[in-house]
Amino acid sequence: MIQKLFLVLMLFALTACGMIPGNTGPQTTPIPTFTLAPRITPAPNGSQATVLGGKQSGDLFVWIYSSPNPPIRGNNTFEAYVADANGQPIKDAKVSFDVDMTNMSHGKNLVVANVTGEGLYNGNISFMMPGPWRVIVAINRSGQTNSVRFDFNVNSK
Length: 157
Prior knowledge:
Radius of gyration: 20 Å
Strand content: over 45%
Number of strands: 9
Largest sheet: 5 strands, antiparallel
Shape: elongated
């Protein structure tokens, strides 16, 4: 009887503390269903890059691309396409990528993006390990900063 009571109490404690996993699969950022959609942009190696995610922040729309896609452990190139509500590319912004894991922090990892023209900004990002990651894309324009968060998985290779 005491063993059964002990097991029930342990099960309750583990459930209450979240130790029994439920849906622990990674929650990736869904691609939005905007009526405005950017073209598929060329990746640095000349192939076509598939969109990793897209979101709206204020009056801006932001899509991110990864080469390779999905991202892998090691070196990756991230590209952000930034457009206004009319679908016109934002060419005068300062863009940065704030990258970290979602389940453990690896400290500050801020990558200032390079302007590549026509609303495109890119930066080189190195992921230390596979797993669930996030990038916060910050867009500073005319003294105002908009930011969007994208969650995704990094593969081992």
